[in-house]
Write a structure and sequence with these properties.
alpha/beta, 13 helices, globular, 5-stranded mixed β-sheet, 12 strands, 394 residues, single chain
């Protein structure tokens, strides 16, 4: 064999006796076949057969199988981000002339998807009160094909009555999809509560280290899995094996991380209620949080993300106070090892349930830093904001 050929063709190396705890990272676009007959019959390899790297390798299949088991589903597909996971469900289910119901508290880019992509293509949508529960039956029309839920809601943490919503939708033959990123399957399993799709941003707790973008959708119905696969194939959407490898590493510690940040976030939420500058603490564990009863019944555990509504007037010193933080970082996203804080804009993104609060909303994501150092940083932030004079009562 010529040296140039040896450079291209890798030698076979025995794997006998080799067994690693780590999942191998398979970087592959081309899948080769042992003979011409196998190549001609590649379309018959089924759901889990390998035909082309875009549709999966043993690396992606491992993460898919792990998420499927955690969600009590039958199959999972991986996509490049959490938003891609939400969009995949919409694109799989909806056609021109159809209608979708979306909670008013949904992730902002989902609202944009409805306005900027669905409506121009003849797909209608309505936003609904996330606390409507079984009352959503009155909003379902003959054209409704999907009810979307996100619980707790982005920023303001409303917990939806998912079983009641799913039951009302099923009575009309309507599919239900759930953005389950806050909970992960460790706290809530949407498929067990009547949903057809469980979508998640693996970017958050599964990845766990703020170094990847990845999403997933898990289903219980193989027909839905096939429909999603056809959409992904047509759009040419696949995921990087390196991102998947990072997620496989992160998911191993997700249980410990989630338990820790959940405990700290609950403790902080209860303590912050007493601060004179805090108007409201929005955390599902608190009885004052909208939907708390549904949280206590269906979820019962916490992630590390919650929000503070500050009293009006605090915004006067907000920028310098945030910049002075020593432990918290200012940034979007959440679910990593580093604690984050970010002001949230809500009013412009509400239509069914107007947001009338005047104070600043701060979203907090608890990470893995020392607990008392985090608390001291929050206390310094609030003390700095308190130096701004509050407006006089009218």
């Amino acid at each position: 064999m010529h040296d140039l050929t040896r450079c291209v063709q890798h030698p076979d190396v025995s794997e006998e006796g080799f067994r690693s705890l780590a999942v191998a990272t398979h970087r592959a676009s081309t899948i080769v076949y042992p003979d011409a007959e196998s190549f001609a019959a590649r379309s018959q390899r089924g759901f889990d057969g390998y035909t082309y790297g875009l549709h999966g390798t043993p690396t992606t299949r491992t993460l898919e199988a792990q998420l499927t088991a955690l969600h009590h589903g039958v199959r999972t597909v991986l996509v490049p981000s959490g938003q891609a996971a939400c969009a995949l469900v919409f694109l799989t289910v909806l056609l021109p002339g159809d209608h979708v119901l979306v909670p008013d508290t949904a992730y902002g880019p989902v609202r944009n998807l409805c306005r900027d992509y669905l409506r121009p293509r003849g797909i209608e949508y309505d936003f609904y009160d996330p606390l409507v529960g079984g009352g959503i039956a009155a909003l379902i029309t003959d054209r409704t094909r999907l009810v979307w839920v996100e619980s707790p809601g982005s920023g303001t943490m409303e917990v939806q009555d998912v079983p009641a919503i799913a039951a009302a939708a099923k009575a009309r033959g309507v599919l239900v999809g759930c953005d389950n990123t806050w909970c992960t399957p460790l706290l809530f399993k949407p498929l067990d509560h009547g949903c057809d799709f469980a979508a998640e941003a693996l970017t958050k707790y599964v990845g766990g280290h703020s170094d990847l973008l990845l999403g997933s959708v898990t289903v219980r119905d193989m027909a839905l899995r096939q429909r999603m696969k056809e959409v992904l194939r047509s759009l040419g959407i696949g995921v990087s094996p390196d991102e998947v490898a990072l997620a496989l590493r992160g998911i191993e510690t997700m249980g410990l991380r989630l338990a820790h940040v959940g405990r700290v976030s609950e403790a902080f939420a209860r303590r912050l209620q007493a601060h004179p500058l805090v108007e409201r603490v929005l955390h599902p564990c608190l009885p004052s949080c909208p939907g708390h009863a549904a949280w206590a019944r269906d979820i019962g555990g916490s992630g590390g993300v919650f929000s503070l509504l500050l009293k009006p007037g605090a915004e006067a010193r907000l920028n310098p106070a945030l910049t002075a933080l020593r432990v918290f970082a200012i940034g979007a996203s959440w679910g990593g090892t580093r604690s984050l804080i970010a002001p949230m804009s809500v009013r412009g993104d509400r239509t069914a349930t107007p947001w009338t609060e005047q104070g600043v909303l701060l979203r907090i994501s608890i990470g893995l830093e020392q607990e008392e150092e985090l608390w001291a940083d929050l206390q310094t932030l609030l003390d700095s904001l308190a130096e701004a004079p509050l407006p006089a009562l009218p």
